[in-house]
Amino acid sequence: MKDVKLDPSEESVYECFACGTVVTAIAPGSCPDCGADMRNRGTPIE
Ligand SMILES: [Zn+2]
Prior knowledge:
Order of helices and strands: EEE
Radius of gyration: 11 Å
Bound molecules: zinc ion
CATH topology: Rubrerythrin, domain 2
Distance between the termini: 22 Å
Largest sheet: 3 strands, antiparallel
Shape: globular
CATH class: Mainly Beta
Number of helices: 0
Number of domains: 1
Structural class: mainly beta
């Protein structure tokens, strides 16, 4: 497993655990739709 160090000034894609909403942000915190936890998809926009 790779130890990926995220650049805090770099936006990442996050997906909501609960509703699947996808947001691009530096630190989304919680889902803008339902307030659930977000997870980093680890997929840079190409
Ligand atoms: Zn959500």
